[in-house]
Amino acid sequence: MLVLVINSGSSSIKYQVREVTTSEENVAPYTSSMPAINERITLEQATLGAEGDEVLTKGLIENIGEGGEIADHSQALDVMAERLDRELNGREIDAVGHRVVHGGERFSAPVIVNNEIIRAIERLAPLAPLHNPAAALGLRAIQKKWPEMPQVVVFDTAFHRSLPEKAWRYAIPDAFYRLHGIRRYGFHGTSHDYVTGKAAEFLGVDREDFDAVIAHLGNGASVTAIRGGASIDTSMGYTPLAGLVMGTRSGDIDPSVLTGILTRNKDVDAERLDEILNKESGLTAVGGTNDMRELEQRAESGDSGAQLAMDMAAYRLAKYIGGYHVAVGGMQCLVFTAGIGENSAAFRKLVVDELSALGITLDPEANEVRSAETRVISGEDSAITVLVVPTDEERAIAEATAGLVEARIDHG
Ligand code: ADP
């Protein structure tokens, strides 16, 4: 099955076409009450029997919208369809899988799209004002262009629907939660879910028995506590600003700093403060760049700001890992993934050096290996196994899409 995976932003569309093979006996269950059933199944169940390894083509369409070269999402799809015609040598797309940032409290698994689902995604716009409306535009544009095309949405928040209330509640008056949905949601769920499955499989542990801590370290970064294969806590919160020190985001900060900045700086309003915390903070604020490769080079040549930025990010992450080790009742495994987690041996070393109290050690040679494969990097004497597991969100989305669509075709 050819699956087109789409990440639809407000002014851009990222796409990838994956060839997914499905085996019949393993497809996800389907009944006529599709959405209700689907909302209870996990990504893993949705992807059972699906292998979405091969990338046939991928691309990016930018400058969509007012003042851009491309008027709207419909026109962007025309551009994409033309490219796909050329690049796929006449082969046709069978289904479309969309990455959607926010599934609110409703969605805990991928679902097949219908009009009601699109409206639900739009209704969640107050929680993700930049992302959800853009995703809905992408969904509607596909409906218009290819009315019969099956579409599936995969939510960034869904994997964290298993958080217990003590982990997702904020200790502020209840009205903010009831009226505005202010609580911890967590993000990067597709990646945390996928990597958890891969790590358990690699170690030969049943997922239900797998307790781990997963560090997804890209430009945005989050760490998740996995107990029995499910997410029980995660560092991002109401928004992806919380938790770790990231490329351009501050991560956790004393809330009074924000009110302090607002009251002391007349030229900084809430919108500007949001921009400072999301785009001008983190590694960039301390080390002068959000690029880990550059930070490594600068630190090596004696730049103390770059070294401090790396030290702060590693220290914050190590504190989370220690906390989550307690939360999961003792992790069997620590996993590094995403751009920095997969590629920066120097950063992984800084983190593990902070974790000596847990008896975790690195195998220095294994840590230096560059590879696209899952691998062990802990030392033989390490109390806890440390893995590098390459993430692949597009693959997870393609497999979930194929799994659900195939199930519908088989049983529907
Ligand atoms: P995004 O969140 O945008 O998907 P990525 O997962 O691609 O981010 O991660 C981007 C980060 O990974 C950047 O900080 C980049 O510097 C870092 N990175 C990528 N390749 C390397 C490398 N070879 N060595 C160190 N850091 C790397």
Output mean pLDDT: 92
Into which percentage range does the β-strand content fall? 15-25%
Q: What percent of the residues sit in helical stretches (DSSP H or I)?
A: 40-55%
Instruction: Enumerate the spans where pLDDT stays under 50 for 5 or more consecutive residues.
Output: 29-38
Number of discrete domains: 2
Order of helices and strands: EEHHEHEEHHEHHHEEEHHHHHEHHHEEH
Walk across the major sheet and give the strand order. 3-2-1-4-6-5
Structural class: alpha/beta
The CATH topology annotation of the largest domain reads as Nucleotidyltransferase, domain 5
The quaternary structure here is: single chain
Calculate Rg over CA atoms: 21 Å
CATH superfamily placement of the largest domain: ATPase, nucleotide binding domain
- Output the number of helix runs: 17
CATH architecture of the largest domain: 2-Layer Sandwich
Ligands and ions found = adenosine-5'-diphosphate
Distance between the termini: 17 Å
Large-scale geometry: globular
Number of strands: 12
Q: What is the C-level CATH assignment of the largest domain?
A: Alpha Beta
Give a quick account of the main beta sheet: strands, pairing sense, barrel closure: 6 strands, mixed
